[in-house]
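For the sake of transparency, this paper describes our internal protein records without simplification. The remainder of this section carries one protein's record, kept here as part of the documentation:
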Amino acid sequence: MLIAFTDGRRRVCGPCTGHGDPYACPRCASPRSYAVRGLCDRCTLQDELDAVLGPAAEAPDGQYARMRTALAECDQPRTALNWIRNSYSGRLLASLAFTGRPLTHDNLETLARSGTRGDAQTIDYLREVLVAYQALPERDELPARIERHLARVVERCPEHALLLRPYVRWSLLPRARRAAHRRAGLKHRIRWAYTRINLAAAFLTAMRERGLALADVTQHEVDAWLASGPGTHYEVRDFVVWAARRGHSRDLLVPHRPKADPEGLDEDSHWELLQQCLTDTALPLEVRTAGAVLLLFGQHVTRIAALPADALATVDGHTVLILDRTPIRLPRPLALLLTKLTRQEPPGGWAANSPRRWLFPGTRPGRHLSSTVLARRLTAHHIPVRPARTTALVQLAQDLPPAVLAPMLGLHVITAQQWRRRAATDWTAYLEARRGERVGRQATREADSRRAALDGGPQQSEVPAPGGVSDVP
């Protein structure tokens, strides 16, 4: 702490003036914390960990001991101190240590299923902290969260268990895992599965209230249920198609949810935004990088936010970005941006304390930045997310076949084919317009001929004949 002045009015610390530092921690001589009394943040954290974990951390090879060591040595002790003192998940850890309950995924999952949804969120946050500090091994969160939600829905609607369980385990889970392998955001895939489970249960409940089993449901009931609810009801198509294929129902038709055609940017605006992202140093670095990836490769924001640091690599001396399976050689300006982003110090909080690195680190332990937050930052700097993605995908689909585009960008091959069809030049509208012009010219000539016959003399037509020039100026 700078506590004195020299003759030249320069601020100096206590030892430089020949006096002790009254603001030094009495244990380690580090500067005291302004948030605690008498000690620095790290020494206070060690005392707090001894009080919270206590005898549970005495075994050197146990999870509590590893957790204590990791928290005591973290980069920003004040973040860990505030967490263990003030958060619900920190109090839960203290409760588990007091009872001596082992820290395992099974025990935490049992607590999550027996409590409320708020309790489950607290337990999931504690799990993230334990995994980030390697007190617990990593696990595949996607099936665990989906199975937990399925158990809750079945508990509310036990009469639908025989249909919901096979639907989730043999249809939803495999597709959710495939999407996770394509680096789609975990939160996005969980929400995707939750929506379909909830709608399947709601549809079955509505049909049961009408006295109908699933095998007796007709197209009329399906149409009435779709018309009576919001547009999200159309997502029940996934369950209805599965039930018909497995012989649980008739062949029922649920159209895809109506969506407006995607609107893109004009070519000049698209390249101006890309140029701005690559060169404008006034923009935040994460906005420039995310905007350039969006405008150049048409990646969804959920996938941009979930890019790990090792997605950027070097192959044969060239910087590449791995979005799915195919390394993409980057242009030099974008390569420099991504390299600078990986070397940037992570922001404070759990992002600095977590050992796992992301291109866009978030505030939760071991997690990346939320796609919602990233989209808001892009929008705040006048980068329209959906039009930019549409324009980029259309331009890529014009140059690359679906078989190349899909593994490069992490798209499903059917999705790549749809973008290819949207990008393909369609001459139908042009031919129809030309046909309409010819019909209009023919009708005008016939009308002029009729007027000339009625007036008794020839009239000049305002529409020139094909190959000729009109005398009307």
Q: What stands out?
A: The two ends are 89 Å apart (CA to CA). The first strand starts at residue 2 and ends at 5. The first helix runs from residue 41 to 53.
